[in-house]
Amino acid sequence: MAPPADDEDDRLMQRYAAGDARAFEQLYARHHAALFRFVVRLLGREAGTQADEVFQDTWTRVIQHRERWAPQGASFRTWLFTLAHHRAIDLLRKSGREVALDAHEG
After folding, report:
1. What angle do CA 7, 12, 13 make, to 5 degrees?
2. Residue 70's pLDDT band (cuts 50, 70, 90)
């Protein structure tokens, strides 16, 4: 029986943190399409350039934080998508496109 994908991703990230560039290539190949779709859904299709920016910045953060990464209850995929979500929210705030949930209150 094959190991769960989350366990395999965690092992790949651990290998990448130890200097194995091919492990990063495997992580990227496994998650790039789904991550890009996620970012586009967050920002909207009209924000193509911004989606590219968030997508690239997310992978840059993976690279920058590889040595400090450690699984702490969340899978690599959850961590990756959380990085993208935070970056997208930051971009929406800066551009004034953030929607206030409490706009009708007060």
Report:
1. 100
2. confident
* pLDDT reading at 62 higher than 50: yes
Other beta carbons less than 10 A from residue 89's beta carbon: 13
Rounded Cα distance, 13 and 27, in Å: 8
- 0.85 exceeded by pTM: no
What per-residue confidence (pLDDT) applies to 97?
61
- Could you tell me if 2 and 70 are in contact, meaning their C-beta atoms sit under 8 angstroms apart? no
Residue 61 in tokens: 């953060």
| 8 A C-beta contact, residue 76 and residue 13 | yes
CA angle (89, 70, 64) in 5-degree steps = 55
Encoded tokens for 38: 């996620």
For the chain, what percentages of helix, strand and coil (3-state, to nearest 5) are there?
Answer: 70, 0, 30
CA distance 43 to 64: 24
